[in-house]
Design goal:
The chain is mainly beta and 136 residues long. The chain has a single domain (7-116), classed as Metal Binding Protein, Guanine Nucleotide Exchange Factor, Chain A (Beta Complex), CATH 2.170.150. The chain has one helix at residues 33-39, and strands at residues 7-10, 17-20, 26-30, 44-50, 54-58, 62-67, 70-74, 81-86, 92-96, 110-112. A seven-stranded mixed beta sheet has the order 6-7-8-9-4-3-10. The protein has a three-stranded antiparallel beta sheet with strand order 1-2-5, with no helix packed on it. The radius of gyration is 14 Å and the shape is globular.
Length: 136
C-alpha cells in the first residue's frame, strides 16, 4: 500500500501504528457479545478494508485467537483493541474505528448484532439496525 489517501491510526500509548486506505467495504457499530467482552464496551465501531490496503507502520501488535476462526490484535503494552480477522475472509481486515487519528472520516453506516445489544445501550436511530451481521 502506497497511497497519499491512507488514514492512520494506532493505540493509546502510541507503540502500535497502522495505515489503511479506502475503499471501505463496510463500517459498522457491532453489539455482539464477543466484541463487547474483547473491548469492555457496550459496542464497537469497525471498518473493513482489503488487506492489500492496510499495513502496520510501527510496533507489532499482540495477536490472540479469540475463537476458532477469529484472530484479534491489540497493543501488548496498553491493551487497545486494534484489528479483527476472520478465517472466512483472509483478504480483509477489520479495524476499530475509534483508533483512527481522525475517526470522523469513516462514520458507521449500520449497526449489527442488534439482537445482542445491551438494553441500556444507546443506538443511532438514523442507521439501519441488523439483528445479526448479515441482516438475517
Amino acid at each position: 500500500m502506497n497511497t497519499p489517501a491512507a488514514w492512520e491510526g494506532g493505540c493509546l500509548c502510541g507503540a502500535v501504528r497502522y495505515a489503511a486506505a479506502p475503499p471501505v467495504r463496510s463500517s459498522s457499530v457491532c453489539h455482539c457479545r464477543s466484541c463487547r467482552l474483547a473491548s469492555g464496551a457496550p459496542s464497537v465501531g469497525w471498518f473493513v478494508v482489503p488487506l492489500a490496503q492496510f499495513k502496520w507502520l510501527a510496533g507489532t501488535p499482540t495477536a490472540h485467537r479469540s475463537s476458532p476462526p477469529v484472530v484479534r490484535t491489540f497493543c501488548g503494552g496498553c491493551g487497545t483493541p486494534l484489528a479483527y480477522q476472520h478465517d472466512d475472509n483472509p483478504h480483509q481486515i477489520e479495524l476499530t474505528t475509534a483508533t483512527l487519528d481522525e475517526p470522523g472520516v469513516c462514520p458507521p453506516t449500520r449497526e449489527i448484532w442488534h439482537a445482542h445489544k445491551l438494553p441500556w445501550a444507546a443506538t443511532n436511530p438514523k442507521l439501519p439496525h441488523w439483528p445479526s451481521e448479515s441482516g438475517a
